[in-house]
Write a structure and sequence with these properties.
Elements lengths: L2 H8 L8 H5 L3 H14 L4 E2 L3 H8 L3 H13 L3 E4 L5 E4 L1 H4 L3
Antiparallel strand pairs: 1-3, 2-3
Helix pairs in contact: 3-4, 3-5, 4-5
Amino acid sequence: MSEQMKSRIEYPFVMIPTKIYEINLPPIELAVLTRIIFRAGKTSNCFESKASIAAACGISVRRLSDALLLLEDAKIIEVESGDRKSTRLNSSHVSES
């Protein structure tokens, strides 16, 4: 395996659609969205706990809840509750078109 391939495996990256930058999200909301995109992968569903997302972003769960509300109000994500709690990316706002 080439060194370039090894570095891609060791250091995954997240592609952020350029539309996101037009919204001018505050830094914490951008960090939260980046984490959700990273964890969602190709499925657009993120089943990570709020505590885990908050820890990865270096913020409190309360601050994460505020960030999720802002992202949901902006229709960037959809937060589902119930048996299958998840955060779903709203592809109409996240994808490149």
